[in-house]
Amino acid sequence: MIFNKIRIAYGEVLERFKPILRNAYQSIYHYQLDRTTENESQMREAINATREILEFFANHLPYSKAKYILALKRSDEMAPFDLIMCFDQAIFEMHVWETLSELRIKQGQWAKNNTWSKELRDLLNERQVVRHDDSNLNVEEEFLVSGTPASRGSAQGRACIALDKEDFHQIQRGDILVTTMTTPEFIEVAHLISGLITDRGGIVCHAAILAREFNIPCIVGCQTATTTIKNGDQIRLDAISGIVVSVIQ
């Protein structure tokens, strides 16, 4: 059942959920403005109050979306920053943003504009085994880096580290390009790559603009991508959650 159908079928539940959700986001704002122990405690209580209804809806969502809701069961283990990120991602996946219009909260304000910590990715069990329907091979994925999604989408393929024009000859069609930051010269190879990852930059940097122009999934601001990822690695880029994982078959 897609969430539009859930919204229709369980409209009364969503109406009950609205003030609880608003209170949770208000508590997050208060904590961000003044990070006292008391405000953190109130924020945790407010987020915890959303869990009952969130877990109700988790039963109607695919695991890839529901896992953020399910992770909130372990909120006591999360640092405040990770808790905010996980909660915000859970709400983002539910597409209930019209309930927050009066708070002027942007979609995924925290989850989409900040890097995910390794601790939070570990908590969400990003390292997992997935069995492909058309294959008997097991695929293992392990978190590598995270950053800011700059052009939405996903890609899987061979990583190619190219720091400048002198490295362009290494790029093969379908590669995921990993670099510190792009320059206008990188337009020459944009048609070859299936994804783009950079160490630096934000959503209006050159790499982000280039990726959107060529409709290439892109994550920027990963900080250590060019040192963590190795040439030839098989990787998966998720430019929705902003993460990069290794893929081992």
Automatic annotation (TrEMBL):
InterPro entries: PEP-util_enz_mobile_dom, PEP_Utilizing_Enz, Phosphohistidine_dom_sf. SUPFAM superfamilies: Phosphohistidine domain (SSF52009). Pfam families: PEP-utilizers. It comes from the Bacteria. Residues 171-242 form the PEP-utilising enzyme mobile domain. PANTHER family: PHOSPHOENOLPYRUVATE SYNTHASE-RELATED (PTHR43615), PPDK_N DOMAIN-CONTAINING PROTEIN (PTHR43615:SF1). This is PEP-utilizing enzyme. It comes from Paenibacillus mendelii.
